[in-house]
Write a structure and sequence with these properties.
The complex is a heterodimer.
Chain A (H helix, E strand, L loop, with lengths): L13 E4 L9 H10 L1 H15 L9 H21 L4 H30 L2 H6 L6 H14 L2 H11 L11 H25 L3 H15 L21 H15 L5 H32 L1
Helix pairs in contact in A: 2-6, 3-4, 4-6, 4-7, 4-8, 4-9, 4-10, 6-8, 8-10, 8-11, 10-11
Chain B lengths: L1 E12 L6 H10 L4 E13 L5 E5 L6 H9 L6 E7 L2 E4 L12 H11 L4 H15 L14 H14 L4 E5 L7 H16 L3 E5 L3 H7 L2 E6 L2 E6 L1 H12 L5 H5 L2
Parallel strand pairs in B: 3-7, 3-8, 5-6, 6-7
Antiparallel strand pairs in B: 1-2, 1-4, 8-9
Helix pairs in contact in B: 3-4, 4-5, 5-6
The chains are: A mainly alpha, B alpha/beta.
Chain lengths: ~280, ~250
């Protein structure tokens, strides 16, 4: 089953199972297997998306309706709090950051369920479990993609700027994806040990949303907290994304550096944590 | 297949649902709920290709843990297991991951996870459906299945993944009498291609019928490796129940 490469004849496959050194499986073969099974992650996530909305009236349309309605809710909230609505530019700002935040929060909540939800599969089969959080992030990403046209529509309606700098936002989207994979792996692991994690998550994510530059701009951070802001990974990731996409402003170098650092730390830390606990998943489910 | 000095220990919790709250409460009382389970202790054996191995033993002997280790699902804590060939395991019943997906989608996902290519999987899906006799239900969500269909599909998937080594844990209880006959025949057919099979069962009757070698394990130790006749006799003597029709059905 654990074919080293897909082309090896089954009869020649030799599997050796040995204790993990320092709690980690051998990284080389692990990542080779991970790569050779990538189709599984893709299909797993595709099938999940298909199944998710089959029983609702609007079906796949909810992928767009959901975040858009949420953006409108926050628009109303911000208008009430600030007393001056600020028109459609504010809506453009909120949708820009919120849709990306929605991707992050989707990755985390899907990721948290990915291992505990994959019960039978984990009991029966030997495959790199890291595929499960990967699939969760893929699912969240494909839910995020259809919201992009909605944003650009609002961007046009708001008469937003169009500049070549906007293309650089792709860099921050990429870093966010890497960051999300790490977070999904971390929360997937934690969920196995503490099944109430997914109940805490909505509140955690809500607070994280308010602490991140979604309803406000990155340069509007309160003076006394300005230095602490880099401790929030989403400050650099979402802040720079919004600056580039909405206003065409190229972020300061420290934002680039912080975003890159957070993405790498989350990805490496998350994968290592996940892999070191992977063996126990079988007996903990 | 060769198993050399394998020990398996794992830490687990005996809580029904591990939660943060219960962990905090326990920490406050200074208790630890995590127990270390020594499921397999220093076990060694070799199995030649083409052997059909039955594993017997009382509840909690480590049968299922051994099967998980052979399947690579639970790597050993010590020792080394070498397995040559493609493994297909039916350890926990059910192929399903998502009851909202159709049987076909679930079968395809299972095949991809097992490392088969997309075209191989599509090919197999039809065979699987036919063998499991679930007809049109193949393209219906699995939440609409009866439990018999569920089990038949699971068994069918594991024998159609072109395994060199088939690991089956108590799965012959799946389905009705006619499916049992069919399942037995299919396993015999797999055996003819000189593949190995491991069968865990409490039904000594099916072990005697299908296996040509028996491992008796008790409390994580290999007590006996031998012919079904000898091992089963020793085992039933050990249990002091004697061989009667009842034990052959279900023990």
């Amino acid at each position: 089953m654990a074919s080293v490469t897909a082309t090896t004849a089954p009869a020649d496959e030799l599997h050796v199972y040995e204790p993990h050194k320092a709690g980690l499986p051998k990284l080389g073969p692990y990542f080779r297997q991970l790569w050779s099974r990538r189709q599984f992650a893709a299909e797993f996530s595709r099938a999940g998306i298909r199944a998710a909305n089959t029983q609702t009236l609007f079906g796949q349309l909810w992928l767009v309706l959901n975040p858009t309605l949420l953006a409108l809710v926050y628009y109303v909230l911000v208008s009430v709090l600030r007393r001056n609505a600020g028109g459609i530019e504010t809506l453009a700002h909120i949708t820009c950051g919120l849709f990306l935040f929605y991707f992050v929060s989707g990755s985390i909540s899907q990721g948290a369920q990915s291992v505990t939800g994959g019960g039978k599969l984990i009991m029966n089969m030997n495959f790199p479990r890291l595929l499960l959080p990967f699939a969760a992030v893929r699912t969240a990403f494909f839910r995020f993609l259809p919201t992009l046209p909605v944003y650009f529509l609002i961007h046009i309606l708001a008469g937003g700027v169009w500049s070549p700098q906007m293309l650089l936002a792709v860099v921050f989207l990429g870093l966010t994806v890497i960051f999300c994979i790490g977070m999904a792996a971390i929360f997937a692991t934690v969920q196995v040990y503490f099944r109430d994690t997914s109940s805490f998550l909505p509140y955690l994510l809500r607070i994280w949303l308010y602490l991140s530059p979604v309803l406000w701009f990155a340069d509007e951070a309160p003076e006394q907290f300005k230095d602490l802001m880099v401790l929030n990974p989403l400050y650099s990731l979402i802040g720079s994304w919004t600056d580039l996409l909405l206003r065409g402003i190229i972020p300061e170098p420290k934002m680039w550096f912080a975003a890159l650092a957070w993405a790498v730390v989350a990805f490496v830390g998350g994968s290592l944590l996940f892999m070191s606990r992977e063996r126990e998943f079988t007996v903990r489910l | 297949m060769s198993v050399q000095n394998v020990s398996i220990t794992y830490r687990t919790t005996f809580e029904a649902a591990p939660t943060l709250k219960s962990t905090i409460v326990r920490l406050g009382r200074g208790e630890r709920q995590v127990k270390v389970v020594d499921a397999i202790k220093d076990m060694s054996f070799d199995i030649k290709p083409g052997t059909s191995v039955g594993i017997i033993g009382a509840n909690g002997a480590g049968k299922s843990t051994l099967m998980r280790a052979l399947a690579g699902v639970l790597p050993p804590s010590q020792g080394r297991i070498e397995v040559r060939g493609r493994i297909s395991a039916l350890l926990a019943l059910g192929v399903g991951f998502n009851p909202n997906l159709t049987g076909r989608e679930n079968v395809i996902l299972g095949g991809l996870a097992a490392g088969l290519s997309r075209s191989q999987v599509n090919e197999r899906a039809a065979e699987v459906a036919e063998f499991a006799e679930i007809g049109d239900f193949m393209d219906m969500p699995m939440r609409t299945y009866s439990s018999g269909m569920y089990q038949r599909l699971a068994f069918s998937v594991s024998v159609h993944m072109d395994p060199d080594i088939l690991l089956v844990d108590e799965a012959l209880s799946a389905g009705d009498a006619s499916f049992k006959v069919k399942a037995t025949a299919k396993m015999a057919e797999l055996m003819e291609d000189a593949r190995a099979m491991f069968l865990v069962s409490h039904s000594l009757g099916s072990i005697r019928e299908m296996c040509n070698e028996v491992l008796w394990i008790h409390k994580g130790k290999l007590i006996m490796q031998g012919s079904p006749r000898r091992a089963i006799r020793a085992y039933t003597n050990f249990l002091k129940v004697g061989e009667n029709a009842y034990t052959f059905e279900d023990l």
